[in-house]
Design a protein that fits this description.
mainly alpha
Length: 122
């Protein structure tokens, strides 16, 4: 009978240990899920992306070139189209915006290289 009591006690101890382990694992799972949710929130994704862009000089220059190109395209379209409601003029404005954006975006690195080469020869 004593053998049966000790085996039941051992079984109870093992069950208690497993329940404790289950609670601990559940707590760790919840914490890791909260970390994943925190890191995948749109604000944190945007913040991480901005930090990476500002840390990389090549990427930063590329983003600036693109932004300047888009700005030049929008400005050119505004100047060309104005407040016109003419469909043909608006379509031409879109084409001008696209062409001007690409032209400026491609010319900025060339101008930057020319400026750096000019500084090297001085």
């Amino acid at each position: 009978m004593k053998s049966k009591d000790t085996s039941l006690e051992q079984l109870d101890h093992k069950i208690a240990a497993l329940k404790k382990l289950e609670k601990q694992q559940l707590l760790e799972l919840r914490q890791s899920a909260q970390n994943v949710i925190h890191h995948l929130s749109p604000v944190n994704l945007l913040k991480d992306t901005v930090q990476k862009v500002t840390a990389s000089p090549d990427l930063r220059l590329s983003v600036m070139d693109t932004a300047l190109g888009i700005g030049a395209g929008i400005l050119g379209k505004r100047l060309f189209v104005g407040r016109s409601s003419n469909l043909l003029k608006k379509t031409g404005g879109l084409a001008l915006e696209f062409l001007l954006s690409n032209f400026v975006r491609k010319q900025i690195p060339l101008l930057r290289r020319k400026r750096l080469n000019g500084m090297d020869t001085d």
